[in-house]
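Our platform keeps sequence and structure together, in a single record for each protein. Such a record has a labelled line for the sequence and another for the backbone structure tokens. This encoding replaces a full spatial description with a residue-level series of whole-number codes. Below, we set out a record of this kind in full and without editing:
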Amino acid sequence: MLYVQFISSQFYDPTGDGAAETIYRILDPLLVLGMIIVVYYAYQRKTSVDASSEVAVTREYLEANGVLYLSVALFFGLLWNWIGFQFSNPANSVGWLWIILDLTLPLLFFASSVQLAKSEN
């Protein structure tokens, strides 16, 4: 849904002052909630990998650490832009950071949901 909004908003609201801003004001708290969930489960996965008896660097170790640190960095970027957009002036948010967030968050959500589905089985 975020990809559809990101691409379609360029056509129906290229300046970003109308309906696209309203839709992003609805989507942003949902993204923050999703990021809280992703960071929590990424931390849980990292602690379970760190608790294992393996001392070598494995693929699972790299995935757990990469997802955790990437999700924390994206979460801070999302909070920075969202607070600037929502509570002060929308012009205070950084445009290039929104682009990175809009492109990477769906990928991170998908990867995290696949990992959660694997851990359930």
Notes: The mean pLDDT is 85. Residues 27-120 form one domain. The chain has one domain: 27-120. The chain has four helices and no strands.
